[in-house]
Amino acid sequence: MADEKAGANKLGIKRHEDGSLLLDGKSLLASLGGVWGIAEASIPGVVYATSYIFSQNVLLSVVLATVVSLVFIVGQILRKRPLAQAISGLFGIGLAAYLTLRNGVDAAHARDYYLQGFLTNIIYFSVLGLSILIRWPIVGVLIGMLSSGGSWRKDVHLRRKYSLITLIWVALFGFRLLVEVPLYLANQVVALGVTKLVMGIPLYALCAWFTWLAVRRSIREAK
Predict the structure, then answer these.
(1) Helices marked H in 56-82 — which ranges?
(2) Which of 5, 51, 96, 118 is deepest in the core (most CB within 10 A)?
(3) For residue range 148-178, what is the model confidence (pLDDT) as tens digits?
(4) What does pTM read for this prediction?
(5) Which of 194, 200, 209 has the alpha carbon at shortest distance from 41?
(6) Domain range spanning residue 11?
(7) Buried/exposed code over 80-119 (b: 16+ C-beta within 10 A; e: otherwise)
(8) How many domains does the structure of the chain reveal?
């Protein structure tokens, strides 16, 4: 049951009391971490970019973004969210600060605040792409948790379908890298901050919605 719920959460799909599955605004918001999770993922980066615009001070910008992130983590603990989320958040904060400050605090290193995001996108891009190559597309695995287990792999049509849907997610992470890496190399800190905001949660939500439209019939037929 825990694995099934995790699969649903990743795709934004909610199971109702009658056993039906649905992707609605509420369940999609939940898959993004709710309003709190969206704010936690977005605001520290906005604070960093805004601070850097006005101060041109890398250390100050990192400190302000870190303080904001810590506030969100304390909020998670007070709201009695899973401790693993707080620990993951602390690790993320530490990694972002280290990558930015490891070689000094001059303007040339301001862009390194966004390196952590590149690493995340590379990992997702690689894992999802590999899952397609080995014929275990991640979307199929998650949908299997919600419906037919691993029986979908015996259906060539379904395997291809889930591979194509997984490819949408591969394209998402690849597209982010394609746009953001040149900005990083050009040291366009502000443009990086804006791009990460625009290409972050909105594109994720869009991919989740397209995924639901593509798989809802397969889920119903597997019942």
Answers:
(1) 58-78
(2) 96
(3) 667 788 888 888 999 999 999 999 999 999 9
(4) 0.80
(5) 200
(6) 2-222
(7) ebeeeebeebeebbeebbebbbeeeeeeebbbbbbbbbbe
(8) 1
